[in-house]
Design goal:
Strands 7, 10, 12, 14, 16, 17, 18 and 19 form an eight-stranded mixed β-sheet that branches. The termini are far apart. This protein has 29 helices and 52 strands. The chain is α+β, with helices and mostly antiparallel strands.
């Protein structure tokens, strides 16, 4: 029979013992869950009880603190409740005053039979004042008979919260019932019920005889002494009931009365017990006065942070799997006691006096018990500060220890002493006592279950001195990781204790502790165990796991190997990382181009932030795993154990488990463990949930496998249970769910239709593998090519995309100045927002290839790497998570643009040409010369302009074939039907270009003049005029008429006149080329290349490829003669010599009468070749080709000024005879915005080599009229005409023209201009 109560403290006297009994067949796991539900209500506040309290008679508790007090319960299991104790008569708190039966209806279909069994079991507790039988999960057809089953309470079916609410109400009702029954017992109590023949009164218990006859005679007669002793014991009992009823002040009165009566009766044992009661009542009264009495504590019904139960087990077991202090304890409680200056000394003296009484009477069990209460009280107040006092008292206790008669009491005393030593930090003495307790328990000839309980008690954790009471069911999730050893250096003692526990637990049939002991031996001592012993332990783990129930398979850890260490936190992939997406945000800038402090602050800020993960995205943690054992371990499941900082209801992450097989002596090996966060916030990863043989436990991260610096987001924390080791904890920030866009370029087959074979987002398309590496798509683009395609954006998430930010930049140094440009229709993109989940949109995109420096070898041409960045997010509130800048993601498309040559311009010439016309049509011709239409190619079948000429390497005909158009009129070129009656000339500008085909395939080329350049966003259309089909490496000769410039404002006029005209020509004239699709082309597909990570993407149209080669203003500028400027630029002053309007002379072709001179041949003046029309019309090309232009500045063609020339090589002039007078006029046209004043002189020049040059009379022609130093004022935008006559005096060809005399001024204020250009010259053929 055990007399010393386990874990007795100064608060034990205020706790009402209630037995929890299983009724019927209740599974162990379910019973544990029900017990945990009841265990929550160890403290019930009196204000909550008052609503259920009914006072039948006047309460004997005069000072019951209804506002601040509480009832305290101590729930015990059936085995401990039925265990007899001789001290129930001395201390009423040792009696079971309440019985609660727990029935699981699915396993007990007959409720009446189960209730009858409960009534039989309740009869074993005669002192019980309140009975309840809770029936959980009843069947629907079951009904309660309130008359027969008085104490049966059936819980209605419902979820967990519903059951908890019912339990709360019923426990308050149960507490009220206990209180009312105690008060009733106090009212009905009398001395007749007091016994004087208790086990304590026996000589075998006290060891010393009672009072002597002499003393008895002094106290009175024997009957009087008996009556007084009964009154003494009655007062002690009433005091105990008052303390149990929550009224310490009433208890003090009864305890004081008990002491007074004990002096008269000589009942010193009850007097000493009253001293203990007074001490305990004073402590409870101080707590009530300080409002620090423990109240109802309902812990969170979620899994604890260190429990792997969030994955497996029933909801009920998960809800109740926690470690929480539910008894007396806490900082607030002990601080309230410390505030009372005299209370500590009073309690110490009262306990010391009571101990002395027990010592004098020779009652060793009571003496040792009161000393244990005293040292627990000192440890609770001062902790390690009371180490010396506690050690001294416990030394005296151990001296009395051999005097105990009960072997069970001996073991209990050693265990209690060891635990108290642990509370004050005396771990070495504790370890010695633990070993002594194990040896005593091993020699104890009692049941294996009792032996196991003692052994486990010896291995309980030292605990917190301020939380000494963890409840009866504290071992529900208990593990040997928190054993009582002082540190890991005590390997021999640790190993011996575990080896002693293992067979004891096996004989007792407690497989939970078999598992714990075997797991701890493998984890802590595998290096000292042989292979055979390790295999025995592995077999013990396998057998124990097979016998464990559902909740017992969830262990708190740590368990057996493997062992884990954090290596690195794997961040999100590049396309999944969150970025700030705020189109209106402004970047922080300063007065400096580069501010190193800003960069440093950004790096520091980035270092302070934790690794960021996103809700709904798979995230991984890279860890090291090791198996130090010499046996193979087949781990069934590995998953991360996480918790949210601040707590979170429900599931916080979706684990992705893996299974591994670890060979013997496995060195640290890298393993990646993944999960999907479900809740935003700050997440802590505590370790790995390991499942072996169906048992799951938490294995925390250790930093001892490899010496590595701590990764970002990893910190070291103290290991639980007070160990000196450190554990690694990973902290990451979980961001709210973000959208996910997948972008890809697709070919544009036709308007509104994309290539179906290239779309990765069709309904039947499979998901892309997550391990797919980032690749670069290579696109082949020709010089001048403009590819129209689409960028397909597919929303692969469940969140709509509402905001986008598009950007494209060049990567590396592969591009040239002109390079290749990517243009996106961002306006259409914004119009198509938002992008709904699982849908896609197409963004029109153009790839515009400009000019580049060609290379003879295409493969050596540097590539241009472009990176398209698209930032996007959902709604601002969703993206920011309610605070901070809005977050989204960024997707990137890497393009490698291989810029290949297409058509190269090798020569250029710009000349003026004249067309005879009648005066009546001269104005019409001028208007037609200014017209702009879509087709600008000349189509004369027999003329120079449409003559299809091509050559390879600059020679040969027939390499290019002419393809004529529909024969429509030429724009910009005035073609007279005949020269009959034409007395004036219309001017126009002719542009001639040589272009070579540098592609491998034939190409059609045009020279197009229009109303502006071709933009990448404009649909490319082949012109309807003539084209030239040019083979590879062959040259085409192209020509067109350039329209004059449009009027410009002063702001638009280029300060450099020739550069402005050159820019005008380049904006109006382009070289167009078109080629058919290559036989190897596979439109809209992406295929691999020989280079790793590079694929070739074809975005061309199925109709072929085409492009536009622009002219370069700097090159065109070199070929602009003054006469060309006079034709194209309207703001110049042009001086021409022409026939009078009413002249009867007509312009004719005089080329046959001239023998032109080819420059550079023969003499200084050249050699004259008769009728050399071909030489005249070819010179513009031959001279260019002979100059060897290599892409730099073109050489100006050297030609003779032989007057106005026609489009087909004609030289226009007027025929006359010697002595015939020809009427002419000097025409001065001012196209500027200001008035000008000029001094003009008419000159002549002989084109025949037989005539010398000199004055007009020496030239064989006379000029009649004022033609020298002629003062002329021309208003702005007007024309001045001055008539004169000429008369030839000899035969030959003469040229009449006008020039400005810049040395003559009209007056000091006269404004002279130097921007005078030569217009039309008049050729005169005199026969």
């Amino acid at each position: 029979m055990r007399t010393i109560d386990k874990g007795a403290t100064v608060f034990t006297a205020a706790e009402i013992r209630v037995a929890l009994l299983p009724v019927g067949n209740v599974p162990a796991e379910v019973l544990r869950d029900y017990c945990q539900l009841i265990e929550r209500y160890r403290h019930v506040d009196l204000p909550a009880v008052k609503s259920f309290y009914h006072e039948k008679q006047k309460s004997p508790l005069k000072y019951l603190p209804w506002a601040e007090g509480a009832l305290h319960f101590r729930f015990v299991q059936e085995r401990e409740a039925l265990e007899p104790t001789p001290l129930a008569h001395l201390h009423a708190c040792r009696s079971v005053l309440g019985v609660i039966g727990l029935c699981h209806c699915p396993n007990s279909p007959d409720i009446s039979a189960a209730y009858a069994k409960f009534e039989e079991m309740a009869k074993q507790f005669p002192d019980a004042v309140a009975l309840r039988c809770f029936a959980f999960d009843p069947l629907r057809d079951e009904q309660q008979d309130s008359k027969k089953n008085e104490h049966l309470i059936m819980f209605p079916p419902g979820d967990r919260n519903h059951i908890e609410q019912h339990v709360e109400v019923l426990m308050h009702d149960f507490a009220a019932c206990v209180l009312m029954e105690l008060q009733q017992k106090m009212l009905n109590a009398g001395i007749s019920s007091m016994s004087l023949s208790t086990p304590i009164d026996e000589k075998s218990f006290s060891g010393i005889l009672g009072i002597t006859d002499d003393v008895s005679k002094k106290l009175g007669s024997e009957e009087e002494v008996k009556q007084r002793r009964k009154h003494t014991r009655l007062e002690k009992l009433l005091g105990d009931w008052c303390l149990l009823g929550g009224s310490p002040q009433d208890a003090l009165e009864h305890f004081t009365q008990c002491m007074e009566l004990a002096k008269l009766s000589g009942d010193v044992v009850w007097s000493a017990a009253a001293l203990e009661g007074i001490a305990e009542a004073k402590v409870i009264e101080a707590l009530v006065a300080a409002d620090s009495i423990p109240g109802a504590r309902i812990p969170d019904a979620s899994s604890p942070p260190d429990s792997p139960g969030s994955e497996v087990g029933s909801p009920t077991s998960r809800a109740l799997r926690f470690e929480s202090t539910l008894g007396f304890g806490g900082v607030t409680l002990w601080n309230a006691i410390k505030k009372s200056r005299t209370l500590e000394n009073q309690v110490r003296s009262l306990y010391a006096e009571a101990g002395n009484v027990y010592q004098r009477r020779g009652i060793v069990p009571l003496q040792i018990e009161v000393e244990l209460k005293r040292v627990r009280f000192a440890a609770g107040l001062h902790g390690k500060g009371a180490k010396s006092e506690v050690c001294d008292i416990l030394t005296q206790v151990m001296d009395q220890w051999p005097l105990l008669k009960s072997e069970e009491d001996k073991v209990s005393v050693v265990v209690e002493a060891a635990q108290v030593l642990g509370l004050v930090g005396s771990v070495r003495k504790r370890a010695l006592l633990v070993w002594q307790a194990l040896e005593a328990a091993r020699n104890l000839q009692r049941s294996d279950v009792l032996l196991l309980d003692v052994a486990l008690k010896s291995l309980d954790p030292p605990g917190d001195h301020e939380n000494q009471d963890t409840g009866e069911f504290r071992r529900v999730n208990w593990g040997l990781a928190n054993c009582a050893l002082p540190n890991r250096s005590w390997y021999l003692l640790n190993r011996a204790m575990l080896e002693a526990l293992l067979p004891t637990a096996s004989r007792a049939g407690s497989q939970v502790y078999v598992w714990e002991a075997a797991a701890t031996l493998l984890r802590e001592h595998c290096g000292a165990l042989s292979l055979e012993n390790q295999q025995v332990l592995i077999d013990a783990l396998s057998k124990a796991s097979a016998a464990l129930d559902g909740s017992s398979r969830i262990r708190p850890g740590p368990g057996p190997p493997p062992i884990f260490q954090v290596r690195n936190i794997s961040g999100l992939k590049e396309e999944l990382k969150p970025v700030t997406v705020d189109p209106g945000a402004k970047q922080e800038t300063g007065p400096f181009i580069f501010n190193p402090l800003l960069k440093k602050r950004a790096q520091e800020k980035q270092g302070e932030e934790n690794i960021q993960w996103v809700v709904g995205e798979e995230c991984s943690l890279e860890v090291y795993i090791a198996n130090p054992c010499e046996v193979q371990m087949k781990v069934e499941r590995l998953s991360l154990n996480v918790e949210m900082v601040g707590g979170s209801e429900g599931k916080v992450a979706q684990k992705i488990p893996v299974a591994v097989v670890l060979p013997p002596k496995t060195k640290p090996t890298r393993v990646s463990l993944a999960l999907v966060p479900l809740v935003p916030g700050k997440m802590r990863i505590l370790g790995v949930n390991v499942t072996l043989y169906g048992v799951t436990w938490l294995q925390r991260f250790t930093p001892t496998l490899r010496r590595l610096p701590l990764a970002e987001g990893v910190s070291l924390v103290d290991a639980p249970w007070g160990h000196q080791e450190k554990n690694m904890v990973v902290t990451v920030d979980i961001l709210p769910a973000l959208p996910l866009l997948k972008a890809k370029f697709l070919s544009k087959v036709e308007e509104g239709i994309t290539s179906p074979c290239s779309s990765p987002h069709s309904s039947n398309a499979k998901e892309e593998p997550k391990s797919e590496k980032k690749t670069t798509s290579m696109v082949l683009v020709r010089e001048g090519e403009k590819i129209k395609c689409v960028m397909n954006l597919y929303n692969a998430s469940k969140i709509p995309v509402t905001t986008t930010m598009l950007d494209c930049k060049q990567v590396g140094k592969g591009g040239r100045p002109k390079g290749v440009a990517l243009k996106f229709d961002e306006k259409e993109l914004n119009e198509k927002l938002p992008i709904a989940p699982k849908t896609s949109i197409d963004v029109p995109t153009w790839i515009d290839a400009g000019l580049c420096v060609h290379s003879e070898n295409e493969e050596s041409t540097p590539d241009i790497d472009r990176e398209v960045r698209l930032k996007y997010r959902g709604s601002a509130s969703q993206a920011s998570g309610g605070e901070g800048p809005p977050l989204g993601r960024e997707t990137k498309i890497n393009l490698r643009l291989r810029h290949l040559p297409s058509v190269k311009m090798t020569g250029i010439s710009i000349t003026d040409q004249y067309i005879p016309c009648k005066p009546s049509t001269a104005s019409d011709a001028a208007e037609k010369n200014d017209a702009h239409a879509s087709n600008h190619e000349p189509t004369k079948k027999n003329g120079f302009l449409n003559k299809g000429r091509g050559s390879k390497n600059g020679s040969g005909d027939g390499a290019a074939k002419s393809r004529s158009g529909n024969g429509s009129d030429e724009v910009g070129c005035v073609e007279p039907p005949s020269t009959s009656g034409c007395t004036c000339l219309a001017r126009q500008c002719l542009l001639q270009v040589d272009a070579v085909n540098q592609m491998k395939d034939p190409v059609d080329v045009w020279l197009r003049a229009g109303d502006g350049g071709v933009d990448a966003g404009v649909r490319w259309e082949a012109p309807g005029g003539a084209s030239l089909a040019v083979q590879s490496d062959n040259t085409a000769h192209l020509s067109c008429i350039v329209p004059p410039m449009e009027p410009q404002s002063n702001e638009e006029v280029n300060p450099s006149l020739d550069l402005g005209v050159a820019e005008w020509i380049c904006s109006r004239v382009n070289i167009l080329w078109q080629a058919g699709p290559s036989p190897e082309t596979n439109i809209g597909t992406e295929r691999a290349t020989s280079e790793p990570g590079l694929t070739q993407l074809d975005l061309h149209s199925s109709t072929g490829i085409h492009g536009v080669i622009p002219l370069v203003p700097a090159e065109v500028r070199q070929f602009l003669s003054p006469r060309v400027l006079g034709i194209l630029a309207r703001n110049l002053v042009t001086v021409s010599v022409a026939l009078v309007v009413d002249s009867t002379k007509e312009f004719v072709d005089i080329a046959s009468s001239l023998t032109p001179q080819v420059p550079g041949k023969g003499s200084t003046n050249g050699e004259w070749v008769a009728n050399s029309r071909d030489v005249l019309q070819d010179s513009c090309f031959e001279d260019v080709r002979q100059s060897g232009w290599d892409g730099g500045s073109l050489d100006v063609v050297s030609t003779l000024d032989i007057g106005p020339r026609g489009p087909n090589g004609e030289i226009w002039g007027v025929e006359s005879c010697v002595g015939e007078i020809v009427e002419c006029e000097l025409v001065i046209e001012n196209g500027g915005e200001e008035d000008v004043q000029l001094c003009m002189t008419v000159c002549t020049e002989a084109l025949d080599s037989n005539l010398g040059k000199g004055s007009s009379s020496d030239q064989g022609i006379l000029i009649l009229g004022v033609v020298g130093k002629l003062q002329v004022e021309v208003k702005k935008t007007s024309v001045e005409r001055h008539r004169f006559s000429i008369c030839p005096v000899s035969t030959g060809v003469f040229e009449v023209f006008a020039c400005e005399d810049v040395d003559v001024r009209m007056d000091g204020n006269a404004k002279n201009v130097s921007s005078v250009v030569q217009g039309t010259r008049l050729n005169l053929l005199c026969k």
